[in-house]
Amino acid sequence: MVMFRTVLKLLAASAMVSLASFAMAQQPRSNVPVQQTSPAAVQPVTPPAAPVQAAPSAAAPATPTAPTAAPAVVENAPAKPTFIVPRELSPWSMFMSADVVVKGVMIGLAFASLITWTIFIAKMVELSVVQQKVRSALRKIAEARSLAEAQFALGSKEGVLPSLLAACMREARLSAGISSDAGIKERAASSCAEIVRAEARRVRLGMGLLGTIGATSPFVGLFGTVWGIMNSFIGISKAQTTNLAVVAPGIAEALLATAIGLVAAIPAVIIYNHFARVTKGYLEHVNRASGVAARLLSRDLDRTHVSSPGNRAAAE
């Protein structure tokens, strides 16, 4: 029993010693982890804290990733729309952006329109003046009994009626001594007809150009339209898009050529028809003046035969 108790005591003592040594060895181990686990404890926390610090770092210009991401978003933002904002489609902007051929067509049509209105103003003034002259001259010689009296009433004025009277008097003077009155009248009528034809050519000067402009301007404008639409289709094939904003400017420029062609043609046709009527009325007055001159010549010839000595003797 004594041995057993001694062994128990030794075992208890050895257990106490081992417990004490274990406790002493365990105490520094517990301090080291406490000091080392404080940084280690921060390290597991840093991964969730990294996004918190990444947000301000993205806004900071020193971070390389933040500037590269921002411009990428800014550059891609305008590229999102699939349409092109149309430019200003005023007539002047369409003319400036048109093709060279279309520009040439537009300039030519504008020049033709300028010619039309120039002829209109010039012919209006000319026809008004000559019509007034003929009417006034016919009123002045309405009571004249001979070519000499008619010329004296008109004075030294120039015009178609003084030319007709002068032609009749010249023919009567050149035919002096010829007894055939019919031949004198025929030759005088031929001279008057030449004067009337020359006057008709003069007053119709410029009307042929009006007719040409009125007849060809729509087709010239149509040529510019066809050329512009052809270029628009070529642009569609190059852009590989059917967006209306891409093709609308070219089509509008092409249609502008047709519009200018109509602007040049319509007034030219109207002015041509107006001058055709006015010229016809003026030529009627000229033919009337030619008839007046022929009648005065016929009276002079009859008086000449009556006042001759042979005719007086036959009358007695």
Oligomer category? single chain
Sum up the overall morphology in one term. rod-shaped
Largest sheet: none
- Relative strand content: under 5%
Secondary structure class reads mainly alpha
Order of helices and strands: HHHHHHHHHH
Computed over alpha carbons, the radius of gyration is: 57 Å
From the N-terminal CA to the C-terminal CA, the straight-line distance is 219 Å
pLDDT averaged over residues: 75
Helix content: over 70%
Strand segment count: 0
Uncertain residue ranges: 28-86, 312-316
How many helices? The count is 10
Verbal overview:
The chain has a domain at 99-310. It is built from ten helices and no strands. Helix 4 (100-140) packs antiparallel against helix 8 (207-239) and helix 6 runs antiparallel to helix 7 (181-203). It has 316 residues and is mainly α. Mean pLDDT is 75; it is low at 28-86 and 312-316.
Blueprint of the fold:
Elements (H helix, E strand, L loop, with lengths): L1 H58 L5 H12 L14 H6 L3 H41 L6 H8 L5 H15 L6 H23 L3 H33 L4 H64 L1 H7 L1
Helix pairs in contact: 4-8, 4-9, 5-6, 6-7, 6-9, 7-9, 8-9
Summarize the structure.
By secondary structure, this protein is mostly helical. 84% of the residues lie in helices and 0% in strands.
Could you list some keywords that capture this structure?
316 residues; 0% strand; mainly alpha
